[in-house]
Amino acid sequence: MAKQTLCKRTVGCSNERMKKPGNTTLYFKGCQDCEIAYNLSVIREGVRKDRDGLEKARESKKTGLNVKRFYNTSAWLNFSHYVLLFYSNEDLEVACSTDPTLWYKITDSNICVGHFIKVFDANSTNFATAFEFCNVGPQSRKENDHGGNMDQMAIWIEATHGTGTVNKLKQMKRHAFKLDKYTLNEISKKYLDLLNAELRRRNIDKNPWR
Hints:
Helix content is 45%, strand content 10%. By secondary structure, it is mainly alpha-helical. The protein starts with 31 loop residues before the first helix and ends in a 9-residue tail after the last helix.
């Protein structure tokens, strides 16, 4: 009879199996120590799975941004439209920041918004400055597609936003910053509100890009 009540929870354990409370004939699979250890391991595994599940849920909410996805977000569209509108004249024309001889309607496909600190720089991403107003300016696509004319962009930024702005931007890009879906949504709403406010200020009834 003794052999039948030896612990079966752990190989090699010779302790008596633990009796179930209020019953003289039914036993747990293991002895008291092994049952406690087993239950703790079950609890820990459950905690680990919950933690892993939460992490996976968080990961699923991240954007996994690449160049194409970034420039197709509503956050970028609203931000870039606001920048172009902000710098435009009464005729909704804007000059290229790095070649001021070039002027375009703000809805012209040949004008875009260029970054001084690039969002995607080789294997690095600079999300901290991606939506920084002082880090961007209206720029012809020709200039933007050919390196961005960075020396001239730096001059324009300093002239527009004040001496020392370029150095501040270089420091800012070192800060860790995540552009998850929630953050992008908040940025999108912020710049859509600013865009609409600027349109109202100019008494423009319709968004030019719609």
